[in-house]
Amino acid sequence: MEKLTKQKIKNFSFIVSRNVFILVNGIIFVVIVTLYFFGDTQSALFLGFVLILNIFFGLIQDLRAFFALENLQLLTAPHVIRIEKDISEKSILVEEIKKGDLIRLRTGDQVPCDGTLTESNALELNEGLITGESASIPHAKDDHVLAGSIITSGSGIMSIEIVFQESQIAKMTEGIKTYSVNMSPIQRDIGRLIKYSGYLLIAIIIFVIIRGTIVNQSYVQIVKNIGALTSTLVPQGLVFAMTLLFAYGAAHLFNKNVLLQEINATEKLGRIKNLCMDKTGTLTENTLVVERMETFGNKEKSEAKELVKAYLFGAKENSQTIQAIEKFLGGSESSSKILGVVSFSSWRQYGAVKIEKVDKSTSIIIAGSSESILPHLYDPKEKEWLTNFLITETKQAKRIFCVAESQAKELNDDFSKSQLSIVAVFIIASKLRPGIKEAIDFFQKRGVHLYIISGDSPETVRSIAQSAGVQNCDKLITGAEMKAWSTTDFMTKAKDYSIFARTLPEQKGMIIESLKKTGFTAMVGDGANDTLALKKSDLGIAMFEGSQAARQVSSVVLMNNSFTALPGGVQMADSIIKNAEIVACIFLYPAFSGLFFFIVVSLLGHPFPFSPLNITLINYFTVGIPGILISYWTLFPSQKVMATSDKSFIKKLLPFVVYSSALQAVVMGIIFYFSQKYIPIETSNLLIILMFIVTGFIFFIFSTIAYRGSFESSQIREIVITLVAEVLLLFGICKIPFF
Asked: Nearest-CA neighbor of 494 among 274, 694, 330, 195?
């Protein structure tokens, strides 16, 4: 808990520093001190008040976003089962683990800390997140295990030696999950804009000082010009506004059963161009049903059921397939003695159990996919029967699970040279999820490429995909065919297929890596064998009831365990991105307008005609009040917006902003030039201030149309109300002596 507190303090320090210790605030602080030194106390106090206010609101927004995300993440916080001293079991948070605790490990879990196995029931671990190796490795009692490993098969108990914060993977990934470090495309672009505007500001300050010295301006006037230009040129509130929008998005997406574990995953949902998913649990319901059991020839079904129950009793698996078979058989109680177990693994596609029957004879029972059993059947008639069976059933979108008996004497994890005979074949069905056709249609109409990556047989996957409406189902390849592929083959060939059947977990990872080269790639998964692919994708999306490891490495969790929740989340993400574009526009427009106007008046031989107070007033009317309205639209969206384009955020915004700002600056320059005879050139030039406010509000309306496409009648009404409020407020400021 002490380490957790230190991490929170570190996050708070990061939030405070990025709101307080920034270039713009430093320049404004110097301006305030200088104004006070030269006797302009009123301007110094006002500018100081504005600085404190900006920092305060920035901190409030950032902290609200931080706490909102933290509260949402508590819903998926990793829990483990701790074995207490009285042998009872208790579910606790990973942060509560202490050295010496005994933790139960199950298939699909992620090892929470470094430690030693005190018990292993055919336990296999994948250390791909630590070492990069994708193989699943058996671990026996007394073996050392590392935090971050994924349990792919079996179960066990470990004794904690090193808590997570001190583990190897924690040291490797230190800082990766600190608040808001993993920037989204919009955040990166905004960061660049602010950085370069800071450099530009320094150059302009040097110019103002040199020019003011040459024309004998007073030091106070030079400092005021610097303060006004600082307030104008750097859109310092833009980062905070974006963070707040993303936080609103996270809260609203949760109402649509989409939980974000990264605050900027809001934007990432709208960027999806390649969407990879499994069949079971995604296209189909997660509950499987055994329709019937078939045996070959004269084999008694009662004898077959006993052998299958012996396998179930020894394997102790908890997969959906095994649960369905147990339900069909009425349990897994067996009178056979278990002599050894090789747990089922997605890497092998089978599991095995050695048993001693009641008559003291021994037997090895193997269970798994039809493809793993079929090549090793020694009876040609059995092979022909199973082959014909597969052709008939898989075309009807049925899954086939085979149980066979081996002629081998010893149990091992490689039966490639064994001779097998069929014990039983289970025909398993699963229904399409309600609404899945509409969800598939939604993504395909957006131009998203859908890829089905499954461990099931090719014909079963193809049939399910076709019934769900997935396009290009004829473009299919199997894991066996991909075994001969090199890394280069994956990079060049994977994009040409839509269905990947009988794939191994490491192949899933390679497929994701290759598709990322063609566009932003998301992966939907729920099992331990999906973990590496989820981690490698641009956006990992997990089911809430999936494995703990899958949830831990994903940025998005579907709380209702349904892929059909995703379209609503993507539509919300589109709305957030469009609102973010409008917010960025109204922040950048005054900055560019001020820059171009400064250039125009400088060419006319005049100093910048605004004070920091003037700029603050303009910004509240052109940025602050419209920003409140955009926040309202984000919280209460009233229309669907256009899908997010592939175009870079900067490339999409800057042309419109720059052209509009340049036009305004020229118009303002003309007004400024011809008004010299009628309006004194002072730092408080009311006409120019009012014109900046009017054109800024007009720009807000046009930018909204440009990036949202159209207005709803309710939005037009809200804009009119905002306009009336601004006019009344301006009238009060101009007419009431106090203001």
From this structure: 274
Q: Are 730 and 621 in contact (CB under 8 A)?
A: yes
153 DSSP 8-state letter: E
Reported confidence tier of residue 181, pLDDT bands at 50, 70, 90: very low
- pLDDT for res 504: 80
Give, to the nearest 10 degrees, the angle between helix 219-233 and helix 185-214: 160
Helices (H), 424-565: 436-445, 458-468, 479-482, 487-493, 505-515, 531-536, 548-553
Calculate ∠ Cα 236-241-245, nearest 5°: 160
| HEC assignment per residue over 356-407 | ECCCCCEEEEEEEEHHHHHHHECCHHHHHHHHHHHHHHHCCCCEEEEEEEEC
Cα gap 342→703, rounded to integer Å: 63
Strands 521-525 and 539-543: parallel
Indicate the Cα dihedral angle 91, 96, 99, 105, nearest 10°.
30
pLDDT 10s digits, 477-507: 998 899 889 888 999 999 999 999 888 877 8
Write down the pTM of the prediction. 0.71
Torsion of CA 414, 415, 418, 424, to 10 degrees: 160
Residue 565 Cα distances to 418, 440, 557, 572, angstroms: 46, 12, 10, 11
Q: What is the dihedral of CA 71, 75, 81, 86, to 10 degrees?
A: 70
Nearest CA among 396, 411, 519 for reference residue 461: 396
Q: Are 544 and 571 within 8 A, CB to CB?
A: no
Tokens matching residue 212: 């003011």
Q: What are phi and psi of 5, to 5 degrees?
A: -65, -40
332-347 mean pLDDT: 81
Nearest to 147 by CA among 130, 132, 123: 130
Compute φ and ψ for 147, nearest 5 degrees: -60, 140
Q: Radius of gyration (Cα) for the chain, nearest Å?
A: 32
What are the φ and ψ backbone dihedral angles of 667, each rounded to 5 degrees? -60, -45
- 426: three-class secondary structure by DSSP: strand
Q: Tell me whether strands 449-453 and 274-277 are parallel, antiparallel or unpaired.
A: parallel
Residues 704-709: contacts with CB within 8 Å, 24+ apart? 704/582, 706/656, 707/578, 707/581, 707/582, 707/585, 708/578, 708/582, 708/639, 708/641, 708/642, 709/641, 709/642
Q: Give the DSSP H or E segment for 155.
A: strand 150-162
Q: In this structure, are residues 117 and 158 in contact, taking their beta carbons and an 8 Å threshold?
A: yes
Alpha-carbon span 240 to 406, nearest angstrom: 65
Between CA 190 and CA 649 the distance in angstroms is 9
Predicted confidence (pLDDT) at residue 115 exceeds the cutoff of 70: yes
**CB-count exposure of residue 735 (10 Å: 0-12, 13-18, 19+):** exposed
Report residue 320 as tokens. Answer: 């959906």
CA angle, residues 578, 580, 586, in degrees to nearest 5: 105
Closest CA to 530 of 541, 520, 521, 519: 541
User: Measured at the alpha carbon of residue 151, what is the angle toward residues 149 and 154, in degrees to the nearest 5?
Assistant: 150
Question: 577, 565 in Cβ contact below 8 A?
Answer: no
CA proximity to 372, closest of 332, 418, 412: 418
Helices (H), 523-676: 531-536, 548-553, 566-603, 612-619, 625-635, 649-674
